[in-house]
Amino acid sequence: MSDTPEPRKHLSVDDPKTRPIRSYVVRQGRMSPAQERFIAEGMPRWGVEYRAAPLDYAAAFGRAAPTILEIGFGMGDTTAAIAQTRPGDNFLGIEVHGPGVGNLCKLIEERGISNIRVMQHDAFEVVRDMLADASLAGVHVYFPDPWHKARHNKRRLIQSPFVHELAKRLVPGGYIHCATDWEDYAVQMLEVLSAEPMLENTADGYAPKPDYRPLTKFENRGLKLGHGVWDLVFRRKA
C-alpha cells in the first residue's frame, strides 16, 4: 500500500429524478505520463463505458460470478488488494478522477488481476441506469468525502435515497460495507442504513473491520495517533 492517502471520493447522492446538486467536483489533478498511458492502454481492456442500459456482468467480466460494486476507489490500492484475495468474485470499480483510474489500470496490469472492471463516471447514474435490481452481491463505499461543514452535509453520498437504490440492487443476503474516519459521518451512516427497511445490521452498531478490507498505511498511522475508523456492514434481508 502507498503512504499517500487516497483522494476523497465525490459522488452523486441527489434524488434520481431531480438531482439539482452534484456531490462531487471533478478535480483531475496532474496525471503522470504513466497514468495517462495506462488509461489509454487499459480502459479498452478493462473499462466499461456508461450507457443507459442494463449491464451484462457475464459479458463484461467474461464469466458469471458474484459481483461487488465499489464506489469511489481512489487510487485503487484497496480495490486491487481485495480483488486479489477474493478471486471468485467480480469487482466493478467506479471513480471519476483520472489519476486514480490510471493507477488502478496500472495495478491491474502489473499484478495480472482479471476480476476487476473500471468505470469513470458518476456512480449514481451508473446505479440508476445500468445495474439491475437484485444483481449485486455487495457494495463497498470506503472513506467517501465527509463534507464536514454542516451546510455541505447534504452532499454526502450515504443518504436515504441512494441507500435505498443500492439496497434494491442487492441480492437477498447481499451486503453494503461502508467505512469512514469521520465520527459525525459514521453516526449519519448508521442512522441512514438502520432506517432502510430492506437492510439489517450484521453487528450491534459498528462492525469490526472485515479481514478482506486491508488496513492502509495512512489509516494505520491515523489509528496510532488516536484517530477513529468506523466500519458498518449491513445485509439485505431475505
Describe the structure.
It is a single chain. This protein is of the alpha/beta class. The chain is built from eight helices and seven strands; from the N terminus they run ααβαβαβαβαβαβαβ. The chain has a seven-stranded mixed sheet with strand order 3-2-1-4-5-7-6, with helices on both faces. Helix 1 (33-46) crosses helix 4. It starts with 32 loop residues before the first helix and ends with a strand. The relative contact order is 0.17. Mean pLDDT is 89; it is low at 1-21. It catalyses: guanosine(46) in tRNA + S-adenosyl-L-methionine = N(7)-methylguanosine(46) in tRNA + S-adenosyl-L-homocysteine. S-adenosyl-L-methionine binds at residues 70, 95, 122, 145. Residues 151-156 are annotated as: Interaction with RNA. Substrate binds at residues 149, 181, 216-219.
